[in-house]
Amino acid sequence: MEWTDRIRHVKIFLVVAAVAIAVVSLVVSNSLVRELADEEHNKMEVWAEAMRSLNMADDNTDLNLVLKVINENNTIPVIVTDASGNVQTFRNVNLHGETFADSMEYASTLSRRLSDEGKEIRITLGENARDGYINVCYDDSVMLKRLAAYPYIQLGVVMLFVVVAIFALLTSKKAEQNKVWVGLSKETAHQLGTPISSLMAWTEILKENYPDDELIPEMDKDVKRLELIADRFSKIGSLPEPVPASLKTVMEHVIDYMDRRTSSKVTFIKDFPDNDITVKINASLFEWVIENLCKNAVDAMEGSGTITLAMARTADKVAIEVSDTGKGIRKKDIGNVFKPGFTTKKRGWGLGLSLAKRIVEEYHKGRIFVKSSEIGKGTTFRIELAG
């Protein structure tokens, strides 16, 4: 659990660091955009003054410099209107209209919008406003708009790259872990094979020599149990073909096995429908899943309480629930219970629920999740299989 908390803290730190970098990047880029916007505004003031000079020119005015200033604006969209709002001229503006009247209407609408946004410079045509004025409405250049949008696009690309990289790393890590678990499982099954065979032979000899001993049949059951466990381990990593099986029989096998090996203070309750449910499963592996859930329930109740096993069929699925009256799971840990290595117990590897999830989801194409959990009252695990 400490390891999981440490990983969570590292993830939080990385997210905070990423947000900080993003904020700094946006602040710097927005500062640059504001500087460029101010520079374009200054250029437009010079351009507007040139328009004023052009409108007030007489026969003795040298227009070379004025025309040069006006013609050098090839990037900033600008619309000049008179005092009544009528469009006088425009530059660097793409007008959308089928007719000239439509284009002028579009230009007029655009000039009003720019004026409302404060992108307007008013130029008087005389000593005071009584002599008339023109309005120079301007928009940001294409380059400025691109620079304003570029940081967000860049951050989006970087975040996408980070997400893809993290996903690839997690996938690679998960695949590597799967290989380790599969190899460990098959090696365990292989190592168990020889002593189990010997135990089976010794059990048969004991049956012949002591046919009336009541303990020998129980020993025989445990040896067969070891054989079943070895068979389960050998199937990890392969895709055993599911076959129709009685779900009630599978559940009763688990209850019978667990009831004999747990405290008398633990009560098992069966909430089964009257009609049996047949579903395609690998009975050996699925029993393992239910056993893991029951063992976790016994540990959570510390050897005293009630475990309820229920199953039901709906229109499109079969549901199995295992509920206990144990200590419950903290909300922050619910998302981690199926992760390899996570455990709240002082002993254990934290692999039981991880293997259960893999058996249910990969081998049976179902899903397993914590339906509910409340501290001090208990937990309910739910398994859903295709009906």
Automatic annotation (TrEMBL):
Q: Which domain of life is it from?
A: Bacteria
Query: Which segments constitute the Histidine kinase domain?
Result: 187-387
Enzyme Commission number, as recorded: 2.7.13.3
Q: Which InterPro entries is this protein grouped with?
A: HATPase_C_sf, HATPase_dom, His_kinase_dom, HisK_dim/P_dom, Sig_transdc_His_kin-like_C
Molecular function terms, GO-annotated: ATP binding; phosphorelay sensor kinase activity
Catalyzed chemical reaction(s): ATP + protein L-histidine = ADP + protein N-phospho-L-histidine
Q: Where are the membrane-spanning stretches?
A: 12-33, 149-170
The record ties this protein, via CDD domains, to: HisKA (cd00082)
Keyword tags:
ATP-binding, Kinase, Membrane, Nucleotide-binding, Phosphoprotein, Transferase, Transmembrane, Transmembrane helix, Two-component regulatory system
User: Top enzyme class of this protein?
Assistant: transferase
Q: What is this protein called?
A: histidine kinase
**Which organism's genome codes for this protein?**
Marseilla massiliensis
